[in-house]
Amino acid sequence: MTKAPSTGLTGRKVFLIFALFFGTIASADTFLVVSALRTFSGAETSSAYRAGQLYNREIAGARAQAARGWRLDASVVREADGFARIAVLARDETGGALSGRDLTAALQRPTSKREDRAVVLAETAPGAYGGTLEEVAPGQWDLVVDVMDGAERLHRLKTRVLLR
Q1: 5 in a domain, yes or no?
Q2: Is the residue at 46 inside a domain?
Q3: Which DSSP string corresponds to 89-110?
Q4: 105 contacts 74 by C-beta, under 8 angstroms
Q5: DSSP the chain
Q6: How far is 73 from 87, CA to CA, in rounded Å?
Q7: Which pTM was predicted?
Q8: Among 89, 88, 144, residue whose Cα is nearest residue 116
Q9: In this predicted model, what pLDDT tens digit does every residue of 4-52 receive, in sequence order?
């Protein structure tokens, strides 16, 4: 009489199941670590210590900005040719036109500073400012508009925009 081959769970099958399971986990971990290291570095600033020192200055600037009561309404439109047209309407605390000011605008990527663009805005009408940036890619951007007085920033508006 011949014995039928065993089809049950053998030591070899258990070893292969464990090897495939942990091999899959190790492969996925390796892929995720390599992807993370090749993309975003995680560094928002070159010196966290210096950024911490500037914190109180930023708080004082925000309080002064709120006390002025100025309001900026900004928009940006990306044209089919890749040009981004920025328009800002600046009003003082009474709602009147905020004229004769130096305004700058920047489009900044939320994840990387490599594609950041800046432009000085020109006053096109009392309280209305505009500017154009070339070769702006579609996607998420932070629109940052600053009202400057020399080297001092008097007002900042920062808003997230989606350009198509």
Answers
A1: no
A2: no
A3: EEE-TTS-B--S-EEEEEEE-S
A4: yes
A5: -PPPPP-S--HHHHHHHHHHHHHHHHHHHHHHHHHHHHS----SSS-HHHHHHTHHHHHHHHHHHHHHT-EEEEEEEE-TTS-EEEEEEEE-TTS-B--S-EEEEEEE-SS-STT-EEEEEEEEETTEEEEEESSPPSEEEEEEEEEEETTEEEEEEEEEEEE-
A6: 8
A7: 0.66
A8: 144
A9: 666 788 999 999 999 999 999 999 999 999 988 888 766 667 787 888 8
What is the count of structural domains for the chain? 1
What domain range is 105 assigned to? 70-163
29 in a structural domain: no
Nearest one of 159, 148, 152, 154 to 86, comparing CA atoms: 159
Q: Write out pLDDT tens, residues 113-153.
A: 888 999 999 999 999 999 999 999 999 999 999 999 888 88
The residue behind tokens 């130096």 is 102
